[in-house]
Inverse folding.
């Protein structure tokens, strides 16, 4: 099952709690948390296949307040 961590930078002009709530509501987002550091939020996402995983990541990018994302796909060994 494809999975990834998505590092998310939120725009300072939005309410982070609102953006976090919207990210958590996206199908495929297993967990999302606000963090302290260079990024503002980290989401763990899973999907049945790579196409659905990309749809989840695209949906995250469309959330109001999301400035940019950096995805780290999980390597299956």
């Amino acid at each position: 099952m494809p999975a990834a961590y998505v590092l998310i930078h939120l725009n300072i002009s939005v309410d982070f709690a609102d953006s976090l709530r919207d990210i958590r509501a996206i199908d495929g987002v297993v967990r999302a948390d606000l963090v302290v550091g260079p990024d503002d939020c980290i989401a763990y996402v899973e999907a049945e296949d790579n196409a659905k995983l990309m749809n989840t990541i695209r949906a995250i990018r469309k959330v109001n307040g999301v400035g940019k994302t950096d995805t780290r796909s999980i390597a299956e060994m």
About this structure: The mean pLDDT is 96.
